[in-house]
Amino acid sequence: MDDAPLVAHFTLDDASLFCTGDWTRRGLQARINDFHALPIPTTVKMTIHGDDVKAMDTSGAWSLHRFIHGCKAQGVDIELRGFTQEHYSLLDLIARQQAPQEIPDAKIPGNLALIGKNAIDGFWQVRDFFNFFGEMFLISLTWVVHPGRIRWVSLLSGIQSTGYNAIVIVALLSFLIGVVLAYQVGLQLINYGANIFVVDLVGISLLREFAPLITAVIIAGRTGSAYTAQIGTMKLNEEVDAMETMGLSSMELLVLPKMFALLIAMPLLTILADMMGVLGGMFMSKGLLDVSFNEFLVRFGQVIDVQTFLLGLIKVPVFAVVISGIGCFQGFQVRGSAQSVGEHTTTSVVQGIFMIIVVDAAFSVLYGNLGI
């Protein structure tokens, strides 16, 4: 038997295993393969003696437990003798950790539970949403009362990105909407010989409904999503937390410049959409209905008044607040990972377009009740 220090020793006979020496990671290092190669005894009962074990750590306890587990799997009853109380405790700890545990059945919530959970989550989100809008409104008053607090660089940069850079897409889509609208209306007017009334239908529908609505939808998809992605990325990079730590208001630094930029840019884009939509209607009326540009403009001046233009334009600031508020709110809701940014960006666009349609419907009801 090798009596070298710091080495684990073991002797196996038919009914006993004698363990001596150092049963530690260092002590087992040279003999671990030999120990794992020990055959499982064929007796019914076996005794493992640990009287001369000088030291034992988790490596030694795990190796011994592995041998014991293999014996028990073959129906051999194991008895431990001579180990110290510390060794017994360590072996018991290893046995409990290695013991298989039953996996509880997954509880799948029912449909009623899911409906309740979604309702509660929706309630808390609506509450947070209104809290956010209330805070945004109160802090915006500081800019109105104290113009010196306005962050002009951020504001002008926002006007450029949300307004100037959106000119092409708004103008093109508005022109095409005017073309399509004049075409669809013109096909019906031809049957009655009332070609000139295309001016009335195109002008009123564009200025009161289509131009503000299309502009708002474009901005919700283009700018609202950008707001969410920008603030969400800053949340992931802990830049928002850094602002709050330094005593800076993330609402004033990140939200107000975006909201006021949209309040300035969207009415201008809507006016552009009005002009391009009417221009598209003029071209289609000329080609399909033989209504000249001069006839179109003369009729337009007779039937379309300033009130029609203002009724469409007055909705736009509300659209701007809704789009900027939802975009920024969803950005602040981002948590954890880049996937969250994508999810909240999608939610921002969907909620933005939905709320635009709701607000537009509310204005239509209001105009109807007021008789305008």
Protein model, in words:
The chain is an alpha/beta fold and 372 residues long. The protein has two domains: 8-98, 2-Layer Sandwich (Transcription Regulator spoIIAA); 140-370, no CATH class. It has 14 helices and four strands. The protein has helices at residues 25-28, 32-36, 58-73, 85-98, 111-145, 152-162, 167-190, 198-236, 239-245, 250-289, 293-303, 306-313, 316-332, 338-370, and strands spanning 8-12, 16-23, 45-56, 77-81. It has a four-stranded mixed beta sheet with strand order 1-2-3-4.
Keywords for this structure?
Transcription Regulator spoIIAA, elongated, alpha/beta, 2 domains, 372 residues, 14 helices
Quick one: how many beta strands? Answer: 4
Return the structural class.
alpha/beta
- Give the N-to-C terminal Cα separation: 108 Å
- Which strand order spans the largest sheet, edge to edge or round the barrel? 1-2-3-4
Helices and strands in order:
Elements: E1 8-12, E2 16-23, H1 25-28, H2 32-36, E3 45-56, H3 58-73, E4 77-81, H4 85-98, H5 111-145, H6 152-162, H7 167-190, H8 198-236, H9 239-245, H10 250-289, H11 293-303, H12 306-313, H13 316-332, H14 338-370
Parallel strand pairs: 2-3, 3-4
Antiparallel strand pairs: 1-2
